[in-house]
Design a protein that fits this description.
With about 325 residues, the chain is an alpha/beta fold. The chain has one domain: Alpha-Beta Barrel (TIM Barrel), CATH 3.20.20. It contains 11 helices and 8 strands. It is globular and about 45 Å long. The protein starts with a helix and ends with a helix.
Length: about 325
Amino acid sequence: MDSNRQRLSRRAFLNSTAIAAASLIGTPGLFAVEETNITKRSSSPSSKENDQYKIAVCDWMILKRQKLGAFQLTREIGADGVEVDMGGLGERETFDNQLANEQVRQQFLDKARALNVEICSLAMSGFYAQSFAERPTVPRMVQDCLDTMKAMGIKVAFLPLGVRGDLVKHPELRPAIVERLKDAGAKAEAAGVVIGIETALDASSEVKLLEDIGSKAVRCYFNFANALQAGRDLYAEVRILGKERICQIHCTDEDGVLLENNKRLDMHKVKQTLDEIGWSGWLVIERSRDARDARNVKRNFGANARFLKSVFQK
């Protein structure tokens, strides 16, 4: 091979190597290591600017509870992900969880992948109206949720203590709740996942509750509406809880007006506060529906998703 051809071949080799290296560097997660902050984990590509905050909706609130159609509707709404419910509870021994079926689980995972819609968390929303402290089959319910999380690669579960587990109104339930959450936390820790609890407590009391539970796998699933309805300083509560205790956020208020029209919830100040404490993760739209048009899913959740993206992902 003459010298000109040698130079040309070497240049072509270097160019192709550089292109290959650049493509690898731009591949999300290829060289990633395990994050200590679970809120930073992501399973689909997104821009660097959007990695800190992602927007999701609750499948039961968009009237698609554990239905495949939730993914298409989430995409039409314009959210990045969906919080999938474990199914109804009522007086059953455990959740009416269709995802326990391997074929159904795979359908959900395939649909999410095809539409580029992430599953940000699994929700045990049945406990909104049931007693976590008193139901005898709670260990089985929690285990069913953890098993589903493991099978689907989901890292966060939402557990509301609800009206029958309200520790402000029913402080006598605290010992039972702490004991059950210690057990749930140990199982979640072994599974490498997090259970996010929603309580009616103020931030300082919630910190004390988490300390009593003593598990890094039980954290706060913060709901703006709880602080606002109780007349507490939402932004101060975020700072008290801090980035390591908050695993995810229901980033809405009670129903009445859309987020962009809510005068008691300054979303720009929310972002400033979260930026200051260094938090990142999923902001999940639960409510804040226009009371005049409450069942118009696309209008309510689409408007709220657009507004949150304009604040958090601009």
